[in-house]
Amino acid sequence: MARAGAYMFLAVGFFALLSLLLSPFPQANVPALAGLVGCAWAMATGLLVAFDRMPVWGFQVLLAGGTVLASGAVYFSGEGSSTYAFFYLLMVLYAFYFFPRAEALCHLVFVGTAFAWALVALAPPDPWAAGS
């Protein structure tokens, strides 16, 4: 479980960095996205170093942290249809493979909530809304 999580976070960081270098989004916050890449790699390193001493709930916390990182990547890319939304799929697949069904479903709900938060944060304010 630890090795799969470490490889997942390493791959997420690598592909996010590759996308930043090859074709960054025009309105992306590149320093923030680079920081998220560093966080993903730090999480992978933590899993590789402390895997034998980590309780099961630690993996759940790290997976929730990965979901928060994916939400940050979507937000800092500046586009709701960002390719970084693919990272949510990796988090959900990991949850359903390693955790019991109830815990994986809770994580799926968390992923949906986090993605909704990122989309709402990206949405421009409606000039026609009441009270604006």
Number of domains: 1
Helix content: over 70%
- Give the quaternary arrangement of the chains: single chain
Largest sheet: none
Gross geometry? globular
Cα-atom radius of gyration: 16 Å
Category by helix and strand content: mainly alpha
Describe this structure in words.
With 132 residues, this protein is mostly helical. The chain has one domain (2-122). Helices cover 75% and strands 0% of the residues. The protein has helices at residues 2-22, 30-50, 56-77, 86-98, 101-122. Helix 1 runs antiparallel to helix 2 (30-50) and helix 3 packs parallel to helix 5. The longest helix has 22 residues, at 56-77. The protein is globular and about 50 Å long. The mean pLDDT is 89.
Q: Which properties best describe this structure?
A:
mainly alpha, 132 residues, globular, 75% helix
Lay out the secondary structure.
Layout: H1 2-22, H2 30-50, H3 56-77, H4 86-98, H5 101-122
In short:
The protein contains five helices and no strands.
